[in-house]
Specification:
alpha+beta; 9 helices; 10-stranded mixed sheet; 236 residues; single chain; 10 strands
Length: 236
């Protein structure tokens, strides 16, 4: 792991807040030799397990915490395990994803095929050319900041953006029109979003489903490092 200690501290702070923990939960767990933090939330409509660096966190109703007590972190990070764990409570959906981060700004050469647009309408145009499942997974037009690649003829062919989590993480996503995928456009437009995020003092975060090889490849091309996993199931 080559992420700077300050970057790691920022990531852990953001996730502590996202998971409803004390700001210093991760370093304190490490200091106390704890491998897993648990938080009971009887009103939760999900059960979530996050493994970040060397500390796991499980959040959900008490019955889920109890059921997971004898399950190791590696198993708990599997979607299939979480579905089994929540079967009697109709656990379903979502899944397992890898969490990636970077604190190194990449040099970006201008594209020879498209210009960068900040017009949200261009991202909407990209969504209009993509399958509904891809659109729903990425949520391009819901991002706080949006960037699109537009050809000389005015066609929007790719988009990326990010939402700001806890004021310190830039949660990224990208979408490319189907006929132009596997040409490096996702990497390029995401790099643009990463540059903007880092210029704003944010730590970029990339989340890729464990079965999405293309998304994981984009993270690798951008120089992101995997720091953990997130596995979540919905409850009835």
């Amino acid at each position: 792991m080559t992420l700077e200690p300050t970057t790691i501290a920022i990531i852990e702070l953001a996730w502590a807040r996202l998971l409803g923990l004390a700001d210093d939960a991760f370093p304190n767990a490490r200091k106390d030799g704890l491998e897993r933090i648990t938080r009971v939330d009887e009103d939760a409509r999900t059960v979530t397990f996050v493994k970040l660096f060397d500390v796991g966190v499980l959040v959900g109703p008490q019955w889920a915490i109890d059921a997971a007590a004898n399950i190791d972190d590696e198993s708990l990070a599997r979607h299939s395990t979480m579905l089994d764990l929540t079967h009697d409570h109709d656990g379903h959906g979502l899944g397992a994803a890898a969490l990636y981060y970077s604190d190194v700004l990449l040099e970006i050469d201008p594209s020879e095929v498209a210009a960068v647009s900040r017009n949200p309408g261009h991202c909407a145009e990209v969504e209009g050319q993509c399958p509904p499942d891809d659109v729903n997974e990425v949520g391009l037009t819901s991002f706080d900041e949006q960037f699109a690649l537009v050809t000389d003829s005015g066609q929007a062919i790719a988009g990326a953006g990010y939402n700001i989590w806890e004021g310190i993480l830039a949660h990224l996503g990208s979408l490319v029109t189907p006929e132009l995928r596997r040409q490096g456009l996702a990497t390029y437009v995401t790099a643009v979003a990463v540059e903007e995020a880092m210029a704003s003092g944010l730590v970029p975060q990339w989340r890729a489903r464990l079965d999405n090889d293309a998304s994981r490849a984009t993270a690798a091309k951008l120089g992101f490092e995997q720091a953990g996993t997130q596995t979540t199931v919905l409850l009835a």
